[in-house]
Structure formats: structure tokens, C-alpha cells
Amino acid sequence: MENKIENMDDKLEEQNIEIPEVEVETGDVALDAEELVEISEDIRIETNKEKKAREKKEAKAEKEAKKQKRIERQNTKAAKFIRRSAIWILAILIIFLAGFATSHIIISRPTMAELEQSIADLTTAEAKIISLESEVEDLSSLEAVNESLQTEIEDVNTHITILSARVSVTDALLALQDGDLAEVSLELDKVEATLKTLKTMLNADQQAVVTSMEQRLDLVMGELDEDTTAAAMDLEVLSAKLTSLENTLFANP
What residues make up the domain containing 14? Predict the structure, then answer.
């Protein structure tokens, strides 16, 4: 029993636990020793709990410290990245500004000189335009005369074309009276070509009149081999239509 007590004392001393002094009477040595063992066991159990709690607390503190260090490392990496990004952005900005300044020196100044020269050329051109406008005003009356002459020339050409068609129709009638069908066909071909030319010289309403003449001419061509009398009558109708068109366009008021 004494050995047990000594061993227990040694363990308690290793764990820095003070043991309360117990007065043991001679007659109660056995009973008090057993009670002391029980008390020691209770103290040892309680000490183990405290040790586990302390170890758990230390593990938690160590975990928190590692977590804090990891956060600090991440913050340090982020700060380094931001710092490097800021340096790159600043470098790019400096390069851009240097390029802008260089382009201003190399490009803008010559461009300004060209612009000044262009303005001078424009001023000269404006002066020439003013001079030409004055000349145009002097020539405006001549242009009006020219337009009038051009209209008269067009009218003359149209009149000549109608007269040409009338002459060909008259020649075809004379050849038909002589029985020269070959000559009649030749003159009718001339009339056909002349009517096509005449169409291009007239407006839409007048072109419709010429179209009816072309239809009459087709009747004459179909009647030459079968009924020369009908052909002659249709030629006279065609001649009358040409005379009517001439009077409409060129009759004196």
C-alpha cells in the first residue's frame, strides 16, 4: 500500500499537482490510504480532462493561426498582383502618351501645314469661281439662244422625217398605179424605217398615232399580192394620217 501511495505521489509531482496534507492517525491508516487513492484517481481523471481541453484549445489556436497565415499569404499575393498590374498599366499609359506625342510631332504638324496650304488653295479657287460666275452670267443669254436653236433644230428634223414618210407613201402610190410592185415594196420599206425613226422624236400620245400608221402599213403590205385596189386605198389613208400629224405639229397659227 505504501508503494502505491509513493507511486501516486510521484505521478502527482510529475503533473505539478499539489496534494493536500492529510493527517493520518495510527489506527486508521488502511482506511485513509484507500480514500487517498480514490482522491488521487479523481484528481488524475480531472487532470486528464484539463489536458485534453488544453490540447484541443491549442490545436484550435494552431488551426486558427494557420488559417490566418493562409489569409495573409493570399492578401500578400493579391497585393503583389495589384501592384504588378498597376505597374503594367502605368507603363502602357506612358507608352501610349509617348506614341501620341510622337504622332503629334510627326503627323499633326505636317498635316497642319497641308491644311493651311489647302485653305490658301480654297481661297484661290473661290476667287476663280467668282470670276467664272461672272462669265457664266454673260453667257447665260447665249445659252438661252442655244437652247432655243436646239429646239428648233429638233423640230426641223421631225418635220423632215414626216415629209420623208409622205414622199415615200406618194412614190409607193405612183408605183402601184404603174403596176411596179417591186418599186412599191421598196418604198414601203422606206416608210417603215422612217416611221420607226419618227417614233423616237415624239411624245407618248404622238407615238400612239405613229403606231396606228404602222398597223395601216402592215395592211398595205399584205394586200399587195391579193388586192392592189385595197392597198392603194390604205396608202391614201396612211398619207392622210401623215398630213394630219404634220399639220398638228407644224401648222401656222
Answer: 2-55
Quote the pLDDT of residue 134: 74
Record the cell numbers describing residue 57, joined without a space.
484549445
| Structural domain count of the chain | 2
Furthest-apart CA pair in the chain: how many Å?
A: 188
How far apart, in Å, are the Cα atoms of 198 and each of 17, 84, 175, 184?
Answer: 140, 88, 24, 21
Alpha-carbon distance values, 132 to 30, 49, 228 (Å): 145, 116, 67
Q: What is the per-residue burial (b if ≥16 Cβ within 10 Å, else e) of 133-149?
A: eeeeeeeeeeeeeeeee
- Asked if pLDDT for residue 81 goes beyond 90, the answer is no
Find the CATH number of the domain harbouring 223: 1.20.120.660
Last residue of a domain, one of 16, 35, 55: 55
Structural domain includes residue 120: no
The last residue of a domain, from among 20, 35, 55: 55
CA pair distance 220, 197, nearest whole angstrom: 20
Q: Which three cell numbers stand for residue 24?
A: 493520518
**How far apart (Å, rounded) are the C-alpha atoms in residues 165 and 194?**
6
The H or E element that residue 224 is part of is none
Percent of the chain with pLDDT over 90: 23
Examine the pLDDT at 183 and tell me if it is beyond 70: yes
Our measurement of the distance from residue 30's CA atom to the centroid of its chain's CA atoms, rounded to an integer in Å, reads 108
The separation between CA 159 and the C-alpha centre of its own chain, rounded to angstroms, equals: 57
